Amino acid sequence: MRIAIAAVLLALTACQPAAKEPTPEELGQDDPNVPFKPAPVGPPRTYEATSKTAMSFTPGVLTLTPTPQRSENLPSGAVFAFGNGYILETTLSPGGAMMGQNPPDWSKIFVDPSGAAIDAEKVEFYDVDKETIPPGLPNGGFCKTTSFLATYVMKSPGAEDLMIAAFEGDTWPPANVDTVLCGTFMYSNVH
Known about the structure:
By secondary structure, this protein is mainly beta. It has one domain (45-190). It has helices at 2-15, 52-57; strands at residues 45-49, 61-67, 77-82, 87-92, 124-132, 148-156, 159-167, 181-190. The protein has an 8-stranded antiparallel beta barrel with strand order 1-2-3-4-5-6-7-8. The longest helix is centred in the N-terminal third of the chain and has 14 residues, at 2-15. It is globular, with a radius of gyration of 26 Å.
């Protein structure tokens, strides 16, 4: 009798469809056989140093070159290449400008010469991945070690101004933004 019951159970098990393993796509993973194609990025933009701090630290032309995503899990970035050889390679940190319980008051960091209010939602925030300071650069980089950049673009008829705030430190957001802010720098592109 035990053999008959075991045979029936074995027969029933054999008739059941096999449990299907979920595919990587069903688990939320991209198909490993499809190569990653980053979204296209815009062309480089150039600006001239216009504020006293920008002219002191980075005289001449700033070329801001957007960089594509390096993988599905990393956002795009930008290379900030200044005329004096100072270069900052960055990765965009979406939402970084508004992180923390008390995000920075960007109107105290950036000032629009037209008197318009600073829209914190339009502040772009970058993690600095690599900083290249050429030997003998009179003022060095923006900070002792630049860790983060925030940018804000102000447009007017015939011109575009780019404000850059540079920060040092190991983590963002800091307990007090004033202690990690190294300076603000303004660049202009006149059309």
